[in-house]
Amino acid sequence: MPSKRVKKSIARKTSAIAHQHGKSLDIVLREAPAGMAALTWGQRLDIIDAWVQVLDGVYAHLPLKRALYGFDPIRAIEYLRQQVPTLTDLQFHRELTNLINRLRDAHTQYSGPQSIAGAVATLPFLVEAWGPPEDCRFVVSKVSNRRLINDPFFKPGVTLTFWNGVPFARAVDLHADSETGGRPDARQARAIDSLTFRSLEYGPPPNEHWVDITYVDLKKKEREIRMPWRVVCPNRAPSASGQGGFARMRRGIDPAAEAVRRAKKLMFNAGLWAEERHTRPGRGASKSLTERYKDFLTARKVNTRSGKFGYLRIWSFDVDDDQGFIDAAIKLLRDLPNRGLIIDLRDNPGGLIWAAERMLQLFTPNRIAPTKFGMRATPLTSAMAAARFNQGELGPWAESITSAPSTGEPYSTHLPITTIEQCNDLGQHYGGPVVVVVNANTYSSGDLFSAGIVDNRIGPVVCIGEATGAGGANVWTSVDLSAAMKAAGSPLPALADGANFTIAMRRAVRSGDAEGMLIEDTGVAGQRYSMTRRDIFNGNVDLIEYCGKILSEQPWTQLEVTRNARGLSIKTARLDYIDIYTNGHPAGPGLPLKSDGTVQIKLSRNGGTIEVIGFSKNVVRQRRRLPA
What we know:
By secondary structure, this protein is of the alpha+beta class. The chain has 19 helices and 30 strands.
């Protein structure tokens, strides 16, 4: 484990970068490893034994990974066991991390004592690509603290040509070989991201202490600069998911990507980062919902040649309270134009599955079918599902796992983690058409949300890259798994202090029109779009225009319902019929609509839950639910 002195020093100087807006961050990479504890041979063997036990008995994607990549992780780990006496601590950490990364699964990651919890290695700029995949250009899109860059010509807009002497496109490809991601474009997207931001909790530190960069400046002159790696601890948002409770076992997230997301906020929006970190205890409750969740949700209005639309950015689903998160989204939606909505999920690393899947209902009048999850049917998972301690979490899968050996099924029945009732308990709150924007770094619960949009026919998906990041699983930590295995009578070997891991526990399959299709290593595809230079440097202007055109071509209707003393006031547009229900029962005959406008409806029973359903050409287009 890193010493308390090192962690406190990093944290203190991380705060300084946010507070002082321009002063240098003094923790460079070569200083950070001081104070790390060494593993004994026995502790290394315990880590290897744990991985063999978990991969063989629990890991949800083992058959898929063996088939796709021709790689047997269990045999590879057994070979690593033979090398234990010859490796240093850092070599062991690197070898095991690289081995696990060959699964191409960001849910399944190793964090060893050589790692620094919550820390991210950074260079003070961001790399982005624009243009078609076969001829993309790599540019610096943002720079952080100017005092960290000793070069006045290195600024947003410069084109990157070489990285440590290697042509930049080739450097990206080489780095992509060691990244997670089931498709080449997904690995490339993560490689571009991790060129300048790398989680030190779920991966080894960079091999180099500094990077030599060749670039073409804004006046077309080629220049060189050397930058050292630095370390920051961005911390989690105050409203991020908690470290305990059953909700922690209902997450789908790339934890390394979430740490990197927070580090980007620290480096490129230090004022907001400092503001949220220094809210006094007890003051958070007085903040509005939208303020409490602004690290996860932001919204604005956008003007396009096709009209004015809403724009909702969902940065992450990693929240501690799915209901509060959804209430914040509803509040934001009320202030957006009803002509159409762009939902931007790019670089969303996932989070609480409940939050992602329950949000879907806000955008459709139809019933949501959630994603389903299954476990591998092995003796270990059978014992875990049967244990009394695990009934609340694994009980629904127990019977199908127990019966699997008699039928030859390799997996349990696939069941939802978010119940159908949870997915439909609030109803529609936005009535305009919807388009969702994703990229290859949209991962895990972001994948689930995107799949729900397509499979429930809510709207089209626009994809930068081939598809979403293809993270199809529910992820557990080694702490959660250890407790569940102990209850089943198959305890996990004790891990050294600071050694832990995450594992894909239950695999996800799609519902609705794509019933049974895997998300892992495939993702959710959509209409392909290539980013432009104007998108990067002018607020996604071309992307928003593209989405606006899609929205303008979708059917549009309107339904607004308010309750008053005598009954209901209902405003409609482009609807030809409405039905009204009170507490699930018809409140009277349906009401034909001859024109757009507002109608007043008297109800004999104005109490209870009221539901109004709007039809256009015999298709349900709108639905509003007013609670009692």
